[in-house]
Amino acid sequence: MIMDRLTEFLEAQMAAGRLPGAVVGIAYHGHVVLLKAYGHRDKARDVPMTTDSLFWIASMTKPVTAVGALLLVERGRLVLDEPIGTYLPEFAGWTVQPTVLDLLRHTAGIPEGLLGDSRVHKLYAEAVGDGMTGLTGEEFIDRLSRLPPLHEPGAMWHYGWGLDLTGLIIERLVGTSLGDFLQDEVFAPLGMTDTTFGIPKQRRDRFAQPASPEVLPDLSIARFHSGGAGLVSTAGDYLRFVQMLLDKGKPVLARKTVEYMLSDQLAPGTDTSRLHRPGWNPGYGFGIGLAVRRRIGGAPTPGSVGEVTWPGAGGTTWWADPAEELGVVVMAHTKAKIEPQIRAIVLQALT
Q: How far apart are CA 262 and CA 290, in angstroms?
């Protein structure tokens, strides 16, 4: 029944030109119960979608980078309540410094400038744009460190460059690229064989093409591994990552670390208006690199308290529901709104 309804919905979306194709993966009680491709990977060339198709996962990179940071916390190499100037001396001149935890939960006052029109927003927009720039990591740090913070650390949730800076902190601590570190410590243990920063030349034919070019940025211009938005992956690979979270960290993180990661980290009194506005995550708080559902009511879709998620700007999305032992990954390059409908179709099948 669920396969029939998913097929009917996605075929209608494809027929309407809202997306060329998609891949959906579902894990339930520790088993992959669905991994299915729909439509076209490249409609212009009549290439069908396959389950190993590659997608830019954008901000779905953030929870992965967060796991990398927590691995270093477990090893005593990173302390979350340390000022970021401890690890990025370029920020030592800030009068009030955010902590590493502020970077991970978007309370650092280092905003994505295109998301507002204040004077400070404009400074950030001029400095780094949408983050997909030709800047090196060192240049990225230098430009951000010269700007004023938007707000006091912890006062407001505001989407920003915290996870990109976290990735650069990881690089300085381990002495390798973020991609190499994650490959050794996360991707290899989980069997995520197709997850990389950018698109490897030998895999370009597997990259899913969007219906219109404005859906995706030019990934080729990136000169550092963006811990906030740089990864390319498959539905099967990301479902392995989601299952790791549902399995309380095995075989990557300790159980208590994952419990901490998936808990709401926003203190009472934190301004969450930018998180709860329509189109974002009303009804949610924020954990380590991902949104955490606070209540069943107040959100626009059904779900469970403690469910976690964070979608990608290119159209990919996922959620993990520990209470139901359910993980869902949806890979598509589209601006169409398809997550609420897919969520409803999946949840109605639960007994």
A: 8
